[in-house]
Amino acid sequence: MMLRHLLKLTWKRKSRHLMLSLEILLAFAVVFGIAAFALRYMQLYREPAGFDGTDVWSVAIVTGDSKSSAIPADIYDTLRRNLKALPEVREVGFVSYSPYTNSTWMNAYQSPQTGAKVATNILEASDGVAAALAIPVVRGRWFSATDEGSPVVPAVMNRRLAAAMFPGQEALGREFTDKDSKRTIKVVGIVDEFRHRSPLMVPVNFIMTRFAPLAGESRVRTIVLKVAPGTPRGFEASLNRQLKLVRNDWSYTIAPLAAMRASQMRDLLIPLAVLGVIAAFMLAMVAFGLFGVLWQNTARRIPEIGLRRAIGARAGDIYRQIVAEQLLLSSVAIVLGLILLVQLPLTGALGQMMNWPVFLGAAGLSMVVIYLLSLLCSLYPGWRASRLSPAEALHHE
Predict the structure, then answer these.
(1) Bridge partner list, 251
(2) Of 58, 206, 272, 358, which has fewest CB within 10 angstroms of its CB?
(3) What would the pLDDT profile of 322-343 be if each residue is shown by its tens digit?
(4) Assign residue 251 a region: left if phi > 0, alpha if psi is -120 to 50, beta otherwise?
């Protein structure tokens, strides 16, 4: 009965409540958006990266000449031996680009099973990269010296790419042709994942092919070094000196992967923090507006409140009615917002960005914020209304 009465009162005052409902709806949508981004980031952060950058350093080689020029094969071997001679270095590997950078290399391979072209990220990696980055191979193996001179290019791909290229079949041991380079590629290993850009990178198709300087011209210009735990940042000077012994005319950009990871995370989280601050200011403005409207509405209803008190309503009844009316109004706005926002996971308009766990979590958090905001804004007007005596209320003009 109480709910029916509140619904009738809300409907009778629909024109007065329209702008207030739209304001609550807008606040709900803003909070939902921020919560969805935050929850999706948390979801991605918890997923495996596919490698471990702990105690790993990156060295980018800057030769000064055109990036299209190849580096002689013997230079790579000299670099590897000179770097392994340092007491801090445990493993040396060469890659086409370092983790925790925005670099990427894309290609599309045709599936031998379906004939469909599958786009994928590519990384050239040497034999020592798996040990340097602690890449776990779940099936098969990583590259090794036994692959030297092989007529096919050994490759390790993630499960996502394997399922796309060889649907319903075992990818390990399969071969396919790269139509651009005319090379035959053989899958020798499978990894779960490889998210190289940041811990917040969306999982993508990924393949790593063996880097072999002797197999042809090479343009790989990044070194990854696994170093001893606790190696200080001062190691950079001795590392640079050792590199200069190989090629003094080159320059080297040296950085620990931990520092590169932190930089990437800052770049990704700063926009979210800015949006959060903007949303907080907007919620504050909504709260002030909501409080003012509630105060004004309560003042208009003083004669009605007096009449209710005169016929026996208690102060607590008045208090609860004012609060319940506001929560009901917020519920109407929230339901309308959910009807609109649920289209995102239903249609898949935002892909995995708006999956069902993210939608449900963001909806729940947004409802809590809006209900809490409505409750706090209605407490004082409700308390003031409940303190009015029947005589004072009936004689109010």
Answers:
(1) 62
(2) 272
(3) 777 777 788 888 998 999 999 9
(4) beta
